[in-house]
Amino acid sequence: MKPVRAPVSRPAIVDVAIELMAEGGLEAVSFRRIAAELGVSAPTLYWHVDSKRHLMDLMAEELLERTGATPGLPAADEPWWEWLRAHASRMFTALIATRDAPLVLAGNRPSTDRYAHLEQVLGILVGAGMQPLEAQQSLFAISSYVIGSATEWQAEAERARAVASACSPAGTESGTPPARALGDHPLLLAAVTGLRAEEHRSTFDHGLSLIIDGLRARYAPPPLSAPAGPADAAARPPGPR
Known about the structure:
The protein has 241 residues and is an all-alpha fold.
């Protein structure tokens, strides 16, 4: 007897799509292959998923949910900027761990089920002094940076694998030029040498700090010094008037 299959559902379609992507990349995900895995005809899937773009939106939400990278809310004593930093870091870690995950998240849109949570997230930033549009643009800027960085990370990893498999000459790991080729370019040599000495995530962390610190400087500037009172004036050393 053939095993009894569970009825086709949206979660089942998303699960199979993610499995196919993990095995063969995003190009391996097709309605035809998903239908074959589920033992149904491809048109059946359209009762649950409207299009490939809709499927990718659902895959994006599921990937973030599985990896714990869905934006939560800050702890009671957590500054909003550190909350944003921690979320972006978790999201980056999740994306680089799954083949082609950055491509799935690029251009995705949340489902209506996520609207209430996103309203809360925006509320945190509006409470920090941003206008609703500024809050949304800030989130877009961070997510775009994370997705772009994760895409670059995976492309570099693929390049390193290709170079290694081609048995490249020593000193050209991942396509970086050997030091002797940079002898006439001291600034570039210093930059490349510094990058090699850093942790792999240092470039991502540096860029993320620029964004987060910029938002903090704009929306949470340090308090201005209190104006000097009479006692302070009296304590000042005499000077020219």
